[in-house]
Amino acid sequence: MVLRKPKFLLDENLNRLAKWLRLLDYDAAVYKSISFHNAIRVANRERRIFLTRDRNLAGSNLIFSRRLIMSVDHRDQLKELNDIVTVKEEYLFSRCILCNKRLFNIPKKKIKELIPEFVYESFDEFKLCRKCGRIFWKGSHYKAMKEELKNLLTI
Ligand SMILES: [Zn+2]
Question: For helices 15-23 and 140-152, what crossing angle results, to 10°?
Answer without folding.
Answer: 100
